[in-house]
Amino acid sequence: MVNMKILSDILPKDIDFEIIGSVNVAVADITFDSRAVAANSMFTAVKGTQVDGHSYIEVAIEKGASVVVCEQIPEKINPNVTYVKVNDSAVAMGKLAASFFDYPTRKLKLIGVTGTNGKTTTVTLLARLVNSLGGKAGLISTVQNQIGDTIIPSTHTTPDAIELNKLLSQMVAQECTHCFMEVSSHAVVQNRIAGAEFTGAVFTNITHDHLDYHLTFSEYIKAKKAFFDNLQEGAFALINVDDRNGRVMVQNTSAKVQTYSLRGMANYRCKIIEQQPQGMMLNIDNIEVWTRLIGNFNAYNLLAVYATAQQLGFDQQETLTALSSMGPVNGRFENLIAPNGVIAVVDYAHTPDALENVISTINKIRSDGNRLITVVGAGGNRDKTKRPIMAQVAIQGSDLVVLTADNPRNEDPAEIIADMKKGVEPANVGKVLTIIDRREAIRTACLLASPNDVVLVAGKGHETYQEVKGVKHHFDDKEEISEIFKTLQA
Asked: pLDDT at position 289, please?
């Protein structure tokens, strides 16, 4: 439980503000949701993409708000309320939240990982690493949030600024030494990380995604870059220089730039020596390491984890030993094997690049004569431009493709699949099946597979729901495959 604060004690010194009312007013909590306002709340009126919080100032006051943070002072002033006028409510909210929760990022080492692909695996492996080496790590990811061994469900890749600082303060209270968090481009643009002080930042890669929100690829790049622009001097910025936009990320950063690469000169280097279905042998900084993970993309993820650990001062040999024992992250290239030898791979790949990486990895390790059958869809109410590309990528690397529903949300799944089919050339029509029902699509793919064939079920990974018409229904790709595999006798 957070102690009551006095407004004058939590007003940050690094924002411009104008006060109307007393600064000696008590503040019990902070929120930007008028429904969550209680007695002595600080209500922050944020202009969101859908709703303008300024419209709810009166509602917040009626429910007991003692302080209102806003960009525009209401015409009607309540003499019992203190108004704090700021230039940008979202930025101010982040900085006020950091102050309200006693600046938790000054009491642990916060590392942010951004990029299109690899964020979840990288932060999860980093948290596992620190815990295995005697520290205590917090985790903020797409799959889940975690404080030590305690798991907290995740609703967004990056929480809002208030929830973020609350989580971080709980980590500090439970003596976490580090926190590893995914930083989405949405979070940067929406100032969800305003006020957080990062020890380091990692850039994995940037490929086609989120153009429904950012509209252009250059705006998407700019959003990622802003994260590095705002790093403090003394922090480190670790970038994948094999991605041509890696250097772009750090053009204006004050942080110490470090690089990693599988292909060229860098501060941290890795080479894949051998890949097998059970794992791969890597050479990391001239030391050979066996890992249970496979694929070029996982080599990059492991190298990023290793490089981050070195920047944080962990022992090189202990780090590599710990990494060699780690298995896959939930929903990231997870394998299931049927009694008759059919192999299924479940992966979260929902961008063209991620899908291509997974398919490429499977094709490198599957035996000659065995087929790859790919089950894939695309999310509704998201970037439509990647849909035909997803189909193209699936067809180019697979023997058979089953197009199906992903999370259609408020769109008609048949129309989403029709968009995907625009990427199917006439010569490849015979390689494509359309089965809208995802359960039936997975079942059909598994039944069509022969022993040692691989069935890739892509797009949802760790998710345990399917969102249809705005309603989430329980659906777990791994559960579906397991049930089907029970019927495939040896």
From this structure: 97
What stretches of 155-284 adopt beta strand conformation (E)?
178-182, 200-203, 236-240, 256-261, 268-276, 279-284
Residue 348: is its pLDDT beyond 80? yes
Contact status, residue 355 vs residue 394, Cβ threshold 8 Å: yes
Residue 203 DSSP code: E
Is the pLDDT at 214 greater than 50, yes or no?
A: no
Angle, alpha carbons 3-4-8 (nearest 5°): 125
User: What pLDDT shows up at residue 210?
Assistant: 45
Q: Which residue, among 140, 112, 142, 130, has the nearest Cα to 178 in the 3D structure? A: 130
- Determine the Cα–Cα distance for residues 253 and 234; give it in Å rounded to an integer: 11
3-state secondary structure of 36: helix
- 67 vs 81: CA distance, rounded Å: 6
| pLDDT tens, position by position, 279-328 | 999 999 999 999 999 999 999 999 999 999 999 999 999 999 999 999 98
> The tokens of 260 are what?
């990693």
Q: What is the pLDDT of residue 417?
A: 97
Phi and psi at residue 382, in whole multiples of 5°? -135, -175
> CA nearest 68: which of 25, 122, 101?
25
SS3 call for 448 = helix
- What radius of gyration do the chain's Cα atoms show? 24
10 Å CB burial of residue 248 (0-12, 13-18, 19+) is: middle
Tell me how far apart the alpha carbons of residues 161 and 142 are, in angstroms, rounded to a whole number: 16
Q: How far, in whole angstroms, is CA 42 from its chain's centroid? A: 29
Distance CA 448, CA 180 (A): 41
Domains of the chain as residue ranges with CATH: 5-93 (3.40.1390.10), 104-324 (3.40.1190.10), 334-485 (3.90.190.20)
- What's the Cα-to-Cα distance from 137 to each of 128, 146, 479, rounded to whole Å? 8, 8, 29
